[in-house]
Amino acid sequence: ACDGAGLVAAVRAAVANLEAHIDEINALNVFPVPDGDTGSNMAATCREMLDYVREETSVEAVAERLREGALFGARGNSGVILSQVVRGLAEGFAGKRRFNGLDLAHALALASTAAYGAVPRPVEGTMLTVIREMAEEADRAGVRHLPKTDVLRAVVERGEDALRRTPEMLPVLA
Q: pTM score, two decimals?
């Protein structure tokens, strides 16, 4: 469902997936410095973010609580960028009890803009590229008025494709 409870469930599933791959993400962490903590920092940020969620039913209320938790729980560069992605999503879901494919596209566009705005010198081939391409795909799919599940599927596929291509964009990843 694309109400507050559905959003929380989706975020919890995403965080569980992130936590299952912390070591892999840490090992891939070579930019901007190979400090090996991106997965750990993102997971810590997400855990704090989820601690702020209560029993809200609207998408707006859940997104706002996620935003607050991500802001106060941001760890490292990746956590700060992630907190800005969540801030953009919260802005996009403002006033929404539920969301549809067009709402998701709008929220992802704001998330991408916020993430790029948080980095003084954005570099392609990073998590910024992945969120930007996901937002672009959501816009294409949402404009076609596809069901939200189809929009989400297209967004995830584009994100996975962008992630696979990051070594081509940022040679240090190769």
A: 0.91
